[in-house]
Amino acid sequence: MIQIECDAILFDLDGVLIDSTACIKRHWQQWAQQQGIDVADIMQVAYGRRTIETIRLVAPHLCAEEEARQLAAVEAADTQGVITIEGAPSLLNSLPMDTWAIATSGTRDVATVRLKHAGLPIPTILVTAEDVTNGKPDPEPYLAAARGLGIPADHCVVIEDSPAGIGAACSAGMQTVAITTTHTHYDLGNANVIARHLSDIHIENGSTCRLAIQIESDKIPSDTRQTLPAAPAPQGD
Questions:
Q1: Would you call 12 a catalytic residue per the annotation?
Q2: More confident residue, 159 or 48
């Protein structure tokens, strides 16, 4: 068991709180067939990235903005195969609303529909594809989430399942807890801590910070900082 103290937890959505892999793959498969693209090439780069950026990588000849808009509209109307990940409801419900946020590569419509379908609360701070100029692995989504909560980046811990998301969090100067939902330990090797399941993570009151994250971990690197310094109280506007 390892414990990390922080003042806020920033979650990815797909692969962390919900499992929408079947739904996502189904829509990418349909789109790939329409465009004459090998879906395997798409899935190699799609995890953790915004749809628009995936399209730019695999089909630079297309209008990525229009293709992404059409895909998002279809996904927002489809919750078949979207599953709540075990432990997500109890974990989120254990957190004060001002200590957590979601930063997802999906659109706001898609994220909201999937959260409601999964029976999960919609956070006060929900950073989506429309809210940033650069998606993961750029740090912008997680920096925006921390800013929205009024918490310094180095007092935040990110829970992720993809290498792109881990890269974004690391670039933002945040500690990272990876879950092997969609990727292997090897793929997630840059994370500070790796757990098998979201249900291996529990939250208690911190001693020096607001939150103490307790993790049944498969990886505890020698350079992991197990306790973050207490953050100053956020200033009012």
A1: yes
A2: 159
